Amino acid sequence: xxxxxxxxxxxxxxxxxxxxxxxxxxxxxxxxxxxxxxxxxxxxxxxxxxxxxxxxxxxxxxxxxxxxxxxxxxxxxxxxxxxxxxxxxxxxxxxxxxxxxxxxxxxxxxxxxxxxxxxxxxxxxxxxxxxxxxxxxxxxxxxxxxxxxxxxxxxxxxxxxxxxxxxxxxxxxxxxxxxxxxxxxxxxxxxxxxxxxxxxxxxxxxxxxxxxxxxxxxxxxxxxxxxxxxxxxxxxxxxxxxxxxxxxxxxxxxxxxxxxxxxxxxxxxxxxxxxxxxxxxxxxxxxxxxxxxxxxxxxxxxxxxxxxxxxxxxxxxxxxxxxxxxxxxxxxxxxxxxxxxxxxxxxxxxxxxxxxxxxxxxxxxxxxxxxxxxxxxxxxxxxxxxxxxxxxxxxxxxxxxxxxxxxxxxxxxxxxxxxxxxxxxxxxxxxxxx
Length: 434
Hints:
Elements: E1 15-16, E2 26-27, E3 35-36, E4 39-40, H1 41-45, E5 47-50, H2 51-56, H3 77-94, E6 98-102, H4 103-106, H5 113-131, E7 137-142, H6 161-180, E8 185-189, E9 194-195, H7 203-224, E10 229-233, E11 242-243, H8 248-257, E12 264-269, H9 270-275, H10 280-290, E13 293-297, H11 316-328, E14 337-339, H12 350-377, H13 379-387, H14 389-392, H15 402-412, H16 423-431
Parallel strand pairs: 1-2, 5-6, 5-14, 6-7, 7-8, 8-10, 10-12, 12-13, 13-14
Antiparallel strand pairs: 3-4, 9-11
């Protein structure tokens, strides 16, 4: 560690004090050691801090530039290492067990790929040193293949094969770095894997390029013995209108098309689910039903804005419904809860960055505990089972044919009456667990 004072000096380590605590710098719901459904909250939630929003984002938005002045901002290797030092100090204060990163978050941009690679390897060695003697782990790494102007027409889907080459080389470097840091997943973010107009786009060619690129990633995972999970994150309208990785259903169809549905799982973000016109719990339930639920990026959108605002979660009922689907699916294995969220551009103080995570961790913990109560009680699942009970005795219908079914309808004088879906009753039931 450096000899200079930390950006977070004076901020205490956050501890659990219970729901009645009036201390801003304390957890009210997240007791990491509390056991819920046979596992500690630490192991259920697997919280991760996102390097990009917490340490690399300057506070800009579409209408204004930088508002944050962090002491590690700059393009030197010295400042990149200072950034890492400060990140680990924040992880310690929060008791966060994991972190996530893009290559561009942790190393300065070089003039060439070789320089990027050298800088990445140097910073990864520094981060590895910071991890020694701690329980802090890497949840996943990934490559930023969207910010630099070279990626303006995509990475894997770019019409220029040299961009494809640069992207493939960058992903290999990031996979090597993730493997070295013992990361538990590797994520592919297709931030520009889409198109703005069909007038200059060969859609079929681009999908084929993306499929081949992902196959190379899977092949390399096995070549180096990486035991983590390969994840894709659906990204609708971010930033192109037509994304090849729009939502869970779209990505699953893509995986099936290229025979990768048993090799790749999904990292699902709440904000992206909403941009795709879905609820977060819908995307989680669908991924679980298809066997591809891997991990989650936890944030929320401003429902009055039409773009991805990446706010920290503060809505416990939303978290309850999300973690209900996670718990139903058996919980996380290699995945976790990554705070892909950023403080507001007016939140300038070090305390703001800490307290945003404290509130989010409490919100998620409260939601998960409510979800566990609902799942253990079983009333919601009982009501769902009762609604479909008729199928338990009539599964043979699905193996029948139209002619046989018609004969049965005539023979048994089948004339069904509509039955209530009881939605309001179930909404009232769900609210009892909060």
